[in-house]
Amino acid sequence: MTRVFNFSAGPAALPEPVLRQAADEMLDWHGSGMSVMEMSHRGKEFIGIHAEAEALARELMGIPSNYKVLFLQGGAIGENAIVPMNLLGTKKGIDVVDTGEWSKKTIKEAGKYCKVNVVASAKDSGYTTIPKRESWKLDPEAAYVHICSNETIGGVQYHFVPDTGAVPLVADMSSDIMSRPVDVSKFGLIYAGAQKNLGPAGLTIVIVRDDLLGRALPITPSAFNYQEQAEADSMLNTPPTYAIYIAGLVFRWIKQRGGLAAMAEHNERKARVLYDYLAASSFYRSPVAPDCRSLMNVPFKLKDESLDEAFLKGAQARGMLQLKGHRSVGGMRASIYNAMPVEGVQALVSYMKEFEAQHG
Ligand SMILES: *Cc1c(COP(=O)(O)O)cnc(C)c1O
Question: Which ligand 1 atom is nearest residue 150's CA?
Fold first, then answer.
């Protein structure tokens, strides 16, 4: 068996010990005689798996008791519609900070349900920055302010939590959740698809402050109604059981490695290896402003883009996959989530040096 270094933006690499444990438990979970996939979501085994996953998520992120943790389906793009349906109440509009491709999707999707006020945009910089908080023109009447904490495609990340006063802050954290400690109490709602940093596709985690429940529009589907799902312990419909189980194993893995502070240290160390090399090289460059660079997704460009294909081919031959940048940005992108070991980034940098020596 050969495992590659998988730099995919998502679905992304998972910790190998988690995959091994899942393999060991595949046919017979803890003497139950069945796979987690085959269990009733209402049986005591799965209820235990679900409860442990929630407890670990709460512990790792330090989620205060006045927040609900929901394990839903629909993905982050789904949440772009589900959040306004749930939080608008009697308000007419929302504020969104536009930092790139995922913000644009939020604006488009939420616009079907309410007025969307783009309070600041990084468009003029080619989405290589995060607009300074002082420049945001917030509407005190907005139902919430939406940010994308890490733009997976452009590789820009918030390194601050914006103060939005009495208006709740909502964050799409799909690509950086549990990569670093966050003060959950500064947010009204956090959502994330699991397939970047937490587990398999199919699970969406929603962390929502109690007082924001009960504002859903009457058209909100019950399966996506936060209050109804909170009252049903996320089991109003069949939850994505296997994805919840794997996420629970990932949470245990994070805890064993020292929690989110240790994850942040590990992620900073990895990103530094890559960014330091990019800064020192005249052959490669990072398009992103230094103070807004993502520790999770690192886009970079070769001096001569006609070498892109050869670069990717050589990487693949060395067991480094999925380095092609998103078509809207071009160049390369290395996604280096929690599960990427530092050895993967070191291998990438040594290949980059070799390629530069050959073609520079
Ligand atoms: C991947 C991603 C999404 C899309 O998630 P889906 O599960 O495909 O809906 C949305 N936002 C961000 C920031 C992402 O990284």
Answer: 13
